[in-house]
Amino acid sequence: MAAPAPSLLVVVGFGPQGWGWQFIAGAIVTVEISVCAYAVGVIFGLLGAWCRLSRARLPSAAGAAYSTIVRAVPELLLIILLFYSGSALLDRLLAIAGLGGTVQVSGFAAAVLTLGFVQGAYMTEVFRGAIEAVPASTIEAAQALALRRWPVFRLVVFPLMLRLALPAMGNLWQSVIKESALVSVVGFSELLSVGKNAASETKQYFGVLCFTAAVYLALTTISGFGFLAAERRLQRAYR
Q1: Among 57, 106, 150, 173, which residue's beta carbon has the most beta carbons within 10 A?
Q2: Which of 17, 30, 22 is nearest to 204 (CA)?
Q3: CA-to-CA distance for 107 and 214, rounded, in angstroms?
Q4: Average pLDDT over residues 11-24
Q5: Radius of gyration, CA atoms only, the chain
Q6: 27-188 adopts what CATH topology?
Q7: What's this model's pTM, rounded to 2 decimal places?
Q8: Which one-letter DSSP state was computed for residue 214?
């Protein structure tokens, strides 16, 4: 006679049959992927916004093409493409440069680079709109103080732009946490992968997957409060 399936509390617990430690490890990996991808997305977004706002035709066209094309391609397709084709591409570039050796793109690197590249396309439009919303008179006043372009951006434009862009940046952070689950398709273990394995082995599909969804909800809710606190802090001088 087959042994009865363990209860949901046993499955998500820390006992001999529990998957609690695996869920914690998976949640940590999910947060690591999300944080790294978000940072990469901010960098790509700032570069993309600079290109979009450039008066030169070539950078402006490149920025527009980046934000338009990348947002139209599914993230899952990009992850699979980079994971399976990235190593061969890097090896070919090394051979062209006269350098030997091989490069293996890990699942973590593929997830971070791909999600960051995609997030950067959305960040580009967020930063572009926020920068254009900064009053031109404020920038002209900073330039009247004989400040160069980089100090004007760092001391004047960026703080004002950040206040306007932060709500949309919070939404993109929520999005990257959920999209980090896509890395499970290339065999990389994160929160969703742990949930699927636990549900498959214990046959507690509904309960375990609902618990996995609850962990994602906890991550997005806690981080959402963090972004809300940052928004309130930046808005103090304008109340």
Answers
A1: 173
A2: 17
A3: 25
A4: 81
A5: 22
A6: MetI-like fold (1.10.3720)
A7: 0.86
A8: H
